[in-house]
């Protein structure tokens, strides 16, 4: 793909998160290779997005934000689909000439727009990036919720399978993908996420180390955990492992638990409380620092320090000064924090599951991979904190940095994506027709109507049927309108 291409990214909400970081890095990387790149999204708040999205580095177009993200805290997947359909309607009709000039689409998280893009823009190619199947992330706490998810799970599999190409973020996710969607005959390839390897070369201020009193002195070695305060992150594993060290060892070390935290999220609040109770049960002295003022009152002899919503500058400082990063999640899809730690020269201790199997080299090469058993983790903490020499630690850090720079840079990811697009340029899956696009609507209508009849609500079943027929007819009119506005579409 030597010539310049027009590449459009379709992403639901361009906030701050791992998926958004990947999209931004991929867009910047492809743009640096000489391609014209745009990101189309339903939401992007300048006060809550990455710098590249607000400083002019990337062209971000926000459309289709007219519908809510949920209804009374529910129906989020339904609202997400409606919002993406609204976004794609804007894309196709606002400037049809620009739409028809698009060579390549990068779609992630939500695949419902894939058949629509392929139907109207037959000359374009569509690549779907699967972070992890949504059907496996959705909660099913009741029979009703499981039934509710049936049509949406089917829609996800059906529309994902219509993409010209599919890539995933790790070999682990590739295996999960094939189990989740056995009917999709496209073999997903792996394009790893990346970190900004140039950040390590820009130098860092010591401001954070001087600002927070509990970071002064540097006499205690730091075991660092960075994760959202969620139960699935299994932070209790490292708390138990740290408690397994001898009392004399704990006097020379400290566990810092940092990560995403929102007072509005019940699980964040509850899980923080659970971790505090766990510390109490293990006789570990603990404290929570929420801001600079609260940091002034933290005792110097605490064993565990909680840092909810840690600032990025402090996070960077901790990654560079920690003796070991303890990455506790099991079966994590990929895991960007281990890469950030290795780039900072910090060894990583992670569970021998999921993404870390592909990023962390075991047995002290760049870190350690162990089963999620506290006793085994305690043994590695003993080695990482007290047994390896300074020279061994320096050599380990250099190996870790080299691995990240060679395999997980922005340039590596952009080159891998460009290779995927080159493959799509040379191949073409079957063209899809009107009924292929409308199949999700038909199936959803039939399923929901059948469920309503099953619970005795035939009146609502009729309403559902009429709505499905209305959508079918409306999309037919939309098809004629789009082609009338620009005959090159379709």
Automatic annotation (TrEMBL):
Pfam families per record: Glyco_transf_4, Glycos_transf_1
Transmembrane segments annotated in the record for this chain: 437-454, 460-482
Domain Glycosyltransferase subfamily 4-like N-terminal residues, every copy: 16-198
A GO cellular component entry from the record: endoplasmic reticulum membrane
Protein EC: 2.4.1.132, 2.4.1.257
Keywords tagged on the record: Endoplasmic reticulum, Glycosyltransferase, Membrane, Transferase, Transmembrane, Transmembrane helix
PANTHER family per record: ALPHA-1,3/1,6-MANNOSYLTRANSFERASE ALG2, ALPHA-1,3_1,6-MANNOSYLTRANSFERASE ALG2
Protein name, as recorded: Alpha-1,3/1,6-mannosyltransferase ALG2
Taxonomic lineage: Eukaryota, Fungi, Dikarya, Ascomycota, Pezizomycotina
Chain's gene name: ALG2
């Amino acid at each position: 793909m030597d010539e310049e291409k027009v590449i459009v990214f379709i992403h639901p909400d361009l906030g701050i998160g791992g998926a958004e970081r990947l999209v931004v890095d991929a867009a910047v990387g492809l743009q640096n290779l000489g391609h014209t790149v745009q990101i189309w999204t339903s939401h992007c708040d300048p006060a809550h997005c990455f710098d590249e999205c607000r400083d002019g580095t990337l062209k971000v177009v926000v459309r289709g934000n007219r519908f809510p993200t949920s209804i009374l805290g529910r129906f989020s997947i339904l609202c997400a689909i409606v919002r993406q359909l609204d976004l794609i309607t804007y894309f196709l009709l606002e400037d049809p000439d620009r739409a028809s000039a698009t060579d390549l689409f990068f779609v992630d998280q939500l695949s419902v727009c894939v058949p629509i893009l392929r139907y109207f823009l037959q000359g374009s190619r569509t690549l779907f990036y699967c972070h992890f199947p949504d059907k496996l992330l959705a909660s099913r706490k009741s029979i009703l919720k499981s039934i509710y998810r049936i049509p949406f799970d089917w829609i996800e599999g059906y529309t994902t399978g219509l993409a010209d190409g599919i890539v995933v973020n790790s070999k682990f996710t590739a295996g999960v993908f094939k189990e989740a969607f056995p009917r999709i005959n496209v073999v997903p390839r792996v394009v790893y996420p990346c970190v900004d390897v140039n950040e390590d070369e820009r130098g860092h201020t010591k401001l954070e180390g001087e600002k927070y009193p509990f970071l002064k002195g540097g006499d205690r070695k730091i075991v660092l955990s960075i994760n959202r305060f969620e139960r699935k992150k299994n932070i209790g594993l490292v708390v138990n492992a740290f408690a397994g060290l001898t009392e004399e060892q704990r006097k020379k070390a400290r566990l810092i638990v940092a990560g995403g935290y929102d007072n509005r999220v019940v699980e964040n609040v509850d899980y923080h409380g659970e971790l505090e109770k766990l510390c109490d049960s293990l006789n570990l002295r603990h404290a929570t620092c929420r801001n600079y003022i609260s940091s002034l009152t933290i005792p110097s002899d605490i064993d565990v320090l909680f840092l909810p919503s840690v600032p990025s500058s402090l996070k960077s400082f901790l990654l560079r000064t920690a003796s070991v990063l303890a990455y506790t999640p099991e079966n994590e899809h990929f895991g960007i924090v281990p890469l950030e730690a290795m780039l900072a020269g910090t060894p990583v201790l992670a569970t021998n599951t999921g993404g870390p199997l592909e990023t962390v080299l075991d047995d002290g090469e760049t870190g350690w991979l162990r089963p999620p058993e506290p006793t085994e983790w305690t043994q590695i903490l003993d080695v990482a904190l007290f047994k390896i020499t300074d020279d061994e630690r320096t050599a380990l850090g250099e190996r870790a940095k080299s691995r990240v720079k060679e395999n997980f840079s922005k340039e590596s990811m952009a080159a891998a994506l460009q290779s995927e697009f080159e493959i799509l340029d040379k191949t073409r899956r079957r063209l899809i027709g009107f009924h292929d696009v409308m199949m999700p609507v038909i199936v959803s209508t039939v399923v929901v109507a059948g469920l309503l009849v099953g619970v005795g609500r035939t009146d609502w079943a009729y309403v559902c049927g009429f709505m499905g027929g209305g959508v079918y007819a409306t999309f037919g009119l939309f098809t004629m309108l789009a082609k009338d506005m620009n005959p090159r579409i379709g």
